[in-house]
Structure formats: structure tokens, C-alpha cells
Amino acid sequence: MKIAFRQFRTTVLATLLALGFIAEGNTWFNNHFSKSVRDALAKPGTHADPMIDLLTPREREIAVLLAKSHTGKEAAAKLNIRTKTAENHRTNLMRKLGVHDVAGVIRYVVRQGLYDPSGEG
């Protein structure tokens, strides 16, 4: 799964360059998102969120697998659960965190220090 985040004020040329980068099989993030990730990694303790305690251990596992670019089907296979069960966990964790897309889950996981996208793991 390749992900692209685009700011609304980005020029058409910048968007085309990003799409070309993605077409080559790379992952592209806009500068704002990249800075957020760097900031979260530089100061992981400053973003402590008590909402993490609302998530079940399985929901945390699903969130981390999503951050690692796994699909719901891949996460289910990795955890030996049904795809529908993995999707239910994803729905529940997104509701609990108040996010409306997988990008929101990824940002949350990185901010909480559950996954470092710059390294393996």
C-alpha cells in the first residue's frame, strides 16, 4: 500500500511530482506530515495520551500493523483471526481514538511511540 498525503495549497506541479514518485514504487509524505513524524519521534514522551488505555491489546496490535502498511486482510492473517474480526478491531479503535481514516491511526501510533517508521520494527 502506497500512501500520499497532499496539502490543499500544493501546486499542480508538486502534486504531479509526488504522483510520479509513488508510481515508481516509493512512499511520499508531504512536508507537514514528515515534520509531524520527526517531531513525534524526537519527543515521544511529550505526546502521552491517556486514550491509549482505552484500546484493547488486540486493537493496539491492529493499529501498529496498519502503521506498518498492512491491509486488514494481512493483519488478520498475521494475527490468525478472521478478516472481519480485524476490520471490527480497526473500526473500534478508530472510534475510540476519534479518527476517521487510517492516516489518523498512523499518526496516533507514531506519536505514542508504538511504531517507528524510520526503522525496522
Description:
It is a single chain. The chain is mainly alpha-helical and 121 residues long. It has one domain (12-111): Rossmann fold, CATH 3.40.50.2300. It has helices at 12-23, 31-42, 57-67, 72-79, 83-97, 102-111. Helix 3 (57-67) packs across helix 5 (83-97), helix 3 (57-67) crosses helix 6 (102-111) and helix 4 (72-79) packs across helix 5. The model has no long low-confidence stretch (mean pLDDT 80).
Question: What structural category do the secondary elements indicate?
Answer: mainly alpha
Report the end-to-end length measured between terminal Cα atoms: 17 Å
Instruction: Report the portion of residues in β strands.
Output: under 5%
Rg on CA atoms, Å: 15 Å
What name does the CATH topology carry? Rossmann fold
- Tell me how many strands there are: 0
The second-level CATH architecture is 3-Layer(aba) Sandwich
Mean pLDDT metric: 80
CATH secondary-structure class: Alpha Beta
Which bin fits the share of residues in helices?
55-70%
Q: Give the overall shape.
A: globular
- Sequence stretches where pLDDT stays below 50 over 5 or more residues: none
The number of distinct structural domains comes to 1
Number of helical runs?
6
CATH-wise, what's the superfamily?
A: Response regulator
Q: What is the element string, with H for helices and E for strands?
A: HHHHHH
